[in-house]
């Protein structure tokens, strides 16, 4: 066993023991009658299963290699059996090495892979109307990529300008792997191009910010309703028109954290309230996770950036057909394809970089 893998295997043995403990707890009649406890244990078990199953397969391969080596080193062994043992060692050693690499990847990406719903907030930054048009283009790029992956996209809120750009748009995207792929998009995005509004052909630089938050299930975020103040008002439409004459706009304020959410997209107060609570839960979940997992978040910051909206993560240079991701020094000269939703190469590079950095921290 290499020194590099000894710590990893100790960690895997712990997870295997925890998995066995969960199985024991779930067979306890007292636990089985507690629905909340069963749901919590089932989720933990589901998260551990891929790692534990691979680890047990790995342990079997290691044992097989050891048994075949004993046979091979026996001076009295039949030559035919020795050949079989040699072939077995070769086959099981290859399986063992493949499994340990798969286990590493599963282990370091497991937390992210378990999140199947995100809230994505895209806002126009500096650059006026052109920034709003860029925010629209980013939303379209992410939507195309999501649809290509078979994920469900819901527009939760949208504030448009007269040219069809977005001052702000909030999307909910659901599907397996959605956080793994989109978790790297938080930060500042800069565009360099000749705007639709430019008559003299000059290149302008504008910006938009993206925030990506995992959407937790209600059971994962404990919000005391007494901590939330709700404000109700009329929703104003474009050009000063009233969306409706009822009080449908909702603003939620979570007093302990200072987090506020405003929702005025729907004509129904009930729908606005429901959406506002979903966004509040996501923002509060992220806030709680940052406090609880400072060490993990510190590692994540060094890998894919802090997610701070003021941090410039990417430049989209249209005259050069170039996309540059500044965190990993990646430049692709296929911006025309990327902006149409072909983000696979960018996402793959970010995931690989992230994985390698996480492996260093195991």
TrEMBL record:
Residues 82-109 form a coiled coil. It comes from the Bacteria. Gene3D superfamilies: 3.30.160.20, 3.30.70.1660, 6.10.140.1950. It is found in: Cytoplasm. One of its GO terms (molecular function) is translation release factor activity, codon specific. Residues 234-250 form the Prokaryotic-type class I peptide chain release factors domain. Keywords: Coiled coil, Cytoplasm, Methylation, Protein biosynthesis. The keyword Protein biosynthesis applies. Methylated by PrmC. Methylation increases the termination efficiency of RF1. Pfam families: PCRF, RF-1. GO terms for cellular component: cytosol. InterPro entries: PCRF, Pep_chain_release_fac_I, Pep_chain_release_fac_I_sf, Prokaryotic/Mito_RF, RF-1. The modification N5-methylglutamine is found at residue 241. HAMAP family: Rel_fac_1 (MF_00093). Peptide chain release factor 1 directs the termination of translation in response to the peptide chain termination codons UAG and UAA. PANTHER family: LD18447P. Belongs to the prokaryotic/mitochondrial release factor family. This is Peptide chain release factor 1. It comes from Anaerohalosphaera lusitana.
